[in-house]
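--- STAGE predict ---
source: upstream dedup step, 1 unique chain passed
mode: sequence only
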Amino acid sequence: MRPTRPLLPFLGSLALVSACAAPEAPAPIHGEGENGGAIVLFAEPEGLVFNAVLYSSASAPFPAIPRGDGKCVLTPASAMGMTNIAVVDLDLGPAVTLSDGVSPQMAPKEASAGYADVFGARHALPGADRLNIQTQGASFDYLSGFAIPAFGRTWTLTNAGAHDGLQAGTLATITLPAQITQDPTFESAGSIVPGSPANVSWSGGDGAALFHVYAAGAAASADCYVAAGTTRLELPASVTAQLGPGAYAIVDAENMQVVHIAGREVLVVSGADNLD
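--- STAGE serialize ---
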C-alpha cells in the first residue's frame, strides 16, 4: 500500500523554501476577495473522489497559489497543525450533484469535524499540513467517492440549496486531466534517501496546467509544482535531507481555478493521479 497524504485544501500562508527545478511557468493565482473555502475533485484508477467545504466566514486570507515555478514549500513536522484558522461553514443543502451528462452522482452533506476527518485523499496545497482548521458552529462537509470512469471528463457541480445557507445553483464546471502514470521508483515509504537527489518522473496527465510533486518523510513534507509539459522533477539533496526517514514522493496532474460563490472566492482544485 502506497502512502497517502491528508486533504487540507485551503491555507492561510505559505512558507516558500528551496528551489527545485525552475521551468518557465504562468503567474500565480492571487485572490483579491474573501476566502470562501475549497472544492476538490480528482480522478483515480478506482474512480472519482470529491470534497467541498465552503465558508460563510473565515479568518484566513485567500492565498497566492504557485503555478509551476518548480519551487518547493517545506513543512517541518514540528510546524504541522500549528497554524489555527477559525471558519464558519456554509450550508449548501442536503447534497452536491456531480454530473458529466451521463451518470449524475450525489455527494451528501456530512456532519464531521471539517478537514480533519475527510476521506483521506492525497491532495493538498503547499503548506496545508501546517493548518489546524477550527470550525465554529455546525460543520458542512460534502465528500464522497464513486467507482466510475472519471479521467478526462467534464463535470458540472450543483448544490441543492439550503434555507439558511447557499441557494441552489451551479458551483463550478470542471474538466479533469487525463490519467497520469508515475514511475514507481520513489512511491514507497523509505525509497527517498535523505540527502540524496531524487529524480521523480511521470507520463500522461494531458489537460493539466501543472504537476504537483508531494514528498514526505518523518521530519517534513514538501510540495513542489512544475508546469504542464514537464515529465520529471529532481528533488535536490537540500530538500530530501529535510524530509527525514521513510520519505517518498507522489505526483498529481492538477488544475486550479477561482470561482465566486456567495460573494467570496472559492478555490477549485481538480486533477488526476495513479494512486490506489
